[in-house]
Structures are given as C-alpha cells and as structure tokens.
Amino acid sequence: MSKRAVLEVIALDVEDAVAAQAGGADRLELVTDMAADGLSPAPATVAGIRAAVHIDLRVMLRLADGFAAGDVDRLVRVARDLREAGADQFVLGFLDAGGGVDLAAVERVVRALDGCAWTFHRAIDRAADRDALRKQLADLPGLDTYLTAGAADGVDEGLPTLAAEAARQGEPGYGQQLLVGGGLRLDHVPRLRAAGIEAFHVGGAARPSGWQGPVSAAAVAEWRRVLDGR
C-alpha cells in the first residue's frame, strides 16, 4: 500500500457532509434524489455544505435517471449556477443511444466548467466499448478520475476489469485515477489495493439505516481504518 487511499463518500446534505468528514472522508460526491441514482443538488445545498466542511466536493451534473444528457442547455446553466454556489469540482458522464460516449454533450458541459476538475461517472460501466470511450475523452481538460465498478452489475463482476485497467495506468486514455464504487464492500479492498487502486467511493455502505438515514461517521471511520491497513 504505497500511499493513503482516497475515500469519497456520497452526501445529500450538511448532516451527511459533516459526518463523512468526521469519519475520515477525503472527498464528498454531492447529489440529490438517490431514487434516480443521484441528480444535481440545489445550489443552496452546495453552498451550505461548502460552508460546513473543508474537504473537497465533487458535484453531480445530471438532470434525470439514466445516462442520456437530455437538455444540454439546461445542464450548462446548472453547471454555471453550481459554480457560483462554490462548486469547483464535478461529476458527469453521458452516453448516446448506441452506448458510445456523447462527446458533443460532454464537451459542451466541460467548456462551462472552464478547467474545473471532474469525474466521468459510472456511465463507463454501461458503455459499449470502455477503451474507445477512454481514448475519446483522454484529452478533455479537467478529467482526472473515472468512477467505475468495472461492470454494470457492480464490483463483484467488475474486479478483473478493474485490475486490468489499473495495470494500464499511464497508457493513452488511462492516465486518470480509478475511483472504485458500485456494490463496493470492505472485503473487496485487499484485492483492489493489491492491484494498485488507490481511490474508493461509498454510498449506502456509509449508511447503516439505508438511504432514508444519514451518513454514519463510525461507518466511514471503519472504511478509513480498512483503507489505511489498520
């Protein structure tokens, strides 16, 4: 384990954010409406969380369930509103009907981010060709992370793909950090760390009461302990 792993936790509100930070999270993914798998939060929510914690925030840019971009003009407006609220890191990812990256939509939204760091999220796990997607996006400004389970059905199925992609780090299209999430469990961590993966994303695993309950600082602390090898 060469260095401290990044632990990113999904937060819906200030209470979640404060608990995640207290438990040892390095970064938060800010969303709303997990029934739709996470949509863009309100600017006021982002501003409130930014005022309450000091760790990094990545804010979702997504208007509806699924991986289609939808109304790109509105997405651009939402991105600008969120930036005005204090967001300076983002999460996004759009596919076309054939499972290819919707490059036109991604490029338009990224231009509105004006150099902000961003994650391409689990849309990659639904892509028709992961390698082609990575190579199409490789040179877009600000892209530094892929959030992925390695497979649409989650980490259990995706472990071989995650290990293979980690081994290609530094090749064209593989310069971004792998952030593993989607059915991630603590027992996956040793194998992923052994493969060289250094970033982990948890949502429901940080909520003992499920999505109707808040993030637990103790649950986050347990993830921190395991990731640190303690």
UniProtKB/TrEMBL annotation:
One of its GO terms (molecular function) is copper ion binding. InterPro entries: CutC-like, CutC-like_dom_sf. Pfam families: CutC (PF03932). Belongs to the CutC family. This is Copper homeostasis protein cutC homolog. The lineage of its organism: Bacteria, Bacillati, Actinomycetota, Actinomycetes, Kitasatosporales.
